[in-house]
Amino acid sequence: MSNPLRVAIIGSGPSGFYAAESLQKGSPGSHVDLFDRLPTPFGLVRGGVAPDHPKIKSVSRVFDRIASQPGFRFLGNVCIGEALTPAELQRHYDAVVYAYGAATDRHLGIPGEQLPGSHAATEFVAWYNGQPEYARHTFDLSQRACAVIGIGNVAMDVVRILASSADHLATTDLAQHALVALRDSALQEFHIIARRGPVQTACTTPELRELGELDGVDIIVDPRDLDLDPVSAAALASDDHRTEQNNVALLREWAARGSTGAPRRIVFHFSASPIELLGADRTEGVRIVRNRLEPDGAGSVKAVPTDEHVVVPAGLVFRSVGYRGTSISGLPFDAKRGIVPNIDGRVVERAGGTTVIPGVYVAGWIKRGPHGVIGTNKSCAADTVEQLLADAAAGALPSTTTRPDEIDALLAERRIDVTTWSDWQAIDRAEVERGKAAGRPREKVVDVAEMLDLVKTSRES
Ligand code: NAP
């Protein structure tokens, strides 16, 4: 083990930064190399958090501070699994913390899901946030109606961005290509399809409330959906269900208000599961089955299909049923759960196994699954780093034989155009500058080659 500690963190989203911060606090002077496959940092804070939520995005200022600490380096544009293997990382660092999140999404597994017009909500989010791999995606916004499956916060973000006025979106850092497309959107109807009831909404109240604050948009809730089953009614009555109480109160308010004749409308469908996407050449609708809610034996309810079917017309469908982690070649993976198998953050050799791989750790969504808000990752990363430091103190980390600069030599030999923190700052300045000209907080660069050109110009100046 080196002194000070040399640690590689993979993924520069919240869990990666919080892991770096925990190391800086728990082992002052440690050398932290934070890798990202993109030339830019911040993971879902840049590519996932909705552009009209600048307050949530402002957590990046905390990350700036972490990046300014001695011993910290950012190595952007380095894809682990391609540019460097996990085995190579293990040779060059005392410990490696994988914090690369959940890059893909869960599928519904129903007929028609592959039709044109059916998309993952996560792709739409990545598109409007200017994630380079998704910037060239197209979504047919000439449709009149769309459906979003699932009622988590991602579903709320997608519906809100689709139903917001383009003038409002123009005040945000929404990617320019998305702003142009959304200005021409013909969408008037937004269906939210939730398989369980109003008490089981996965979204939080501020996000739900924002739907009701959109200009020119009615919210349609069927009052019959608010007749609660006994389990849901009991849950709602208990003190520890504040979010559920607030969500149901909002839904009741909307159900009572009904339609006001606004040009656009968001329609909630509760106790409804999609069973098929309809259409010959493209999505034209979602066949849903009405569910009965029955006790699930664990204090909540499960959706049990009835034989009542309804078709919701929708020329665009977004499945928003959760993110999913992906594997990195050379690192164990639990394909069932979409996580790297671990015991309290220590990576184990296989799913369900108990043999720990010394010096290899996980934090964030790839450790525990795609749940929780940004702050959840702070304690999650701190817990992992606590294990890492305990292993270091116990002499349980493998010994590193390489010199710190050898990783740089390896990357240079492989002609990887690594971006540093000051390179990112140059991209950041350029984006803010471009945005200023258009009266926007920033205009994102959405092309990796363009980012690297900008970096080159800035290094030469
Ligand atoms: P989520 O919160 O897990 O919600 C997933 C939704 O999909 C649930 O309503 C779930 O219903 C439903 N679902 C799952 N499988 C389904 C199926 N086969 N058929 C129909 N519906 C199905 O996931 P998410 O919205 O992707 O969010 C991920 C995490 O990021 C969450 O922790 C979220 O709070 C967080 N996030 C936060 C913000 C914010 O703070 N503003 C923004 C975005 C995301 P059941 O409950 O019945 O399983």
Task: Give descriptors for this structure.
461 residues, alpha/beta, Rossmann fold, FAD/NAD(P)-binding domain, 2 domains, seven-stranded mixed β-sheet, 17 helices, 18 strands, 34% helix
Shape: globular
Residue stretches low in confidence (pLDDT < 50, at least 5 long) are none
What's the CATH H-level superfamily name of the largest domain?
Answer: FAD/NAD(P)-binding domain
Q: Tell me the distance between the termini.
A: 40 Å
Strand order of the largest sheet: 3-2-1-4-18-17-16
CATH topology assignment of the largest domain? FAD/NAD(P)-binding domain
Average per-residue pLDDT, rounded, comes to 97
Percentage beta strand: 15-25%
What percent of the residues sit in helical stretches (DSSP H or I)? 25-40%
The hetero molecules present are: NADP nicotinamide-adenine-dinucleotide phosphate
Question: Number of folding domains?
Answer: 2
Query: What count of helical segments does DSSP give?
Result: 17
Structural class by SSE content: alpha/beta
The CATH class designation of the largest domain is Alpha Beta
CATH architecture group name of the largest domain: 3-Layer(bba) Sandwich
What is the number of beta strands? 18
Main β-sheet, in a few words?
7 strands, mixed
- Using only CA atoms, what is the Rg? 24 Å
